[in-house]
Amino acid sequence: GDEGCVHCPINSRTTSEGATNCVCRNGYYRADADPVDMPCTTIPSAPQAVISSVNETSLMLEWSPPRDL
Questions:
Q1: Where is the Fibronectin type-III domain (predicted)?
Q2: Dihedral of alpha carbons 30, 31, 33, 34, sign
Q3: Which of 6, 22, 38, 45 lies in the 20 to 30 Å Cα band around 58?
Q4: Cα–Cα distance between 43 and 68 in angstroms, integer?
Q5: Is residue 4's pLDDT more than 90?
Q6: Residue 19 has pLDDT above 90, yes or no
Q7: Are 17 and 36 in contact (CB under 8 A)?
Q8: Are the C-beta atoms of residues 10 and 39 closer than 8 Å to each other?
Q9: What would the mean pLDDT of 7-11 be, rounded to a whole number?
């Protein structure tokens, strides 16, 4: 067509030149409602610095956010 080509969003690819959409790479996903120009994402990594504290009546867990959200 008359429109110029654009790069695929992050973590996606095409299998042919001039494709009309990009598919997510293995291990990455896009929700059904997400537009095709939205980057593909994956599950977050594990939480960091997990600390547990136990007493007679309760368990308390603390952690830092995952490195990869």
A1: 43-69
A2: negative
A3: 45
A4: 8
A5: no
A6: no
A7: no
A8: yes
A9: 91
DSSP one-letter code for 29: B
Contact 3, 32 (CB under 8 A): no
Tokens 């291990």 sit on residue: 27
- For residues 50 and 62, the answer to whether their CB atoms sit within 8 Å is yes
Any idea which residue has 């547990």 for tokens? Answer: 52
Token pair 């368990």 in the structure block, residue: 59
Q: Which residues lie across from 12 on neighbouring strands?
A: 24
Structure tokens at 39: 């980057």
Instruction: Give the β-pairing of 59-64 and 48-54.
Output: antiparallel
